[in-house]
Amino acid sequence: MARKIIIDTDPGQDDAVAILLALASPEEVEVLGITAVAGNVPLALTQRNARIVCELAGRRDIRVFAGCDAPLERALVTAEYVHGNTGLDGITLPEPTMPLQDGHAVDFLIETLRGAPSETVTLCPLGPLTNIAAAFRRAPDIVARVQEIVLMGGAYFEVGNVTPAAEFNIYVDPEAARDVFASGVPITVMPLDVTHKVLTTRPRIDAFRALGTEVGEVVASWTDFFERFDMAKYGHDGAPLHDPCVIAHLVRPGLFGGRHVNVEIETQSDLTRGMTVADWWGVTDRARNATFMGEVDADGFYDLLTGRLARL
Fold this sequence. Notes:
The chain is of the alpha/beta class. Helix content is 37%, strand content 17%. The strands form 2 sheets. It has an 8-stranded mixed sheet, with helices on both faces. α1 links the parallel β1 (3-9) and β2. α1 runs parallel beside α11 (244-251) and α9 (202-209) runs antiparallel to α10 (214-234). The protein is globular.
């Protein structure tokens, strides 16, 4: 039976690929809706980009909601330097014609969780956790109704990608991340420690293009674009494809391995704000609150991704 999920996202090329993977995997996941949040680019672009991706997949039926346009307590930090001015730079796609849904993403999250049997909806945040934390703050009764949160964010051994200590999604809204990690909901984390092991090497991008489809060409163009920044930054042979790890875990969990540990979010320090402090070695007595992934079968990941994209 397909797992019911809500994708909370700030597309971003890698977010877009994650959405495509979910929409191509109906046996494993049923997308109840997509909630857009400000992050990689401002909200006006993230909600637009989410609809562009749905149309690319031929899924105009997917409901897309616009959510929070700024973090809970801070000014917005964006990442056009990685994703381009639109968030989906690399290839020009038509403006979406499917409608943005009426209503706020936070209201959609609350209403959906209240209306579903308890612990039957999984939240899949691919960007800052603002929408999720805002929903939890406004409607504490929904927290216990969430089956699981599988998110992309944070780092431990790979430290930070936007500051020396912090990964972008957590850094943008550390207060939201703190609330979510303290919520008591079962959490699975796809940190940089995993995503930096799924690199878009040239043969892998060529495999997308070799699908001979519009989706294959678009994904190849997106990855061509954003890998330039990361290759220059890290000196790798490709760029990390971060967000599809969330969906790949739901589709094929055996691809990933990690530990159930305590994760706390630093919100006070100017030096380490947004750091995911993962007690990997169990040196504190703090309660374990998250499964923090550290290993991935990268070839298996790309085989799954390419095979599923071929369906679209």
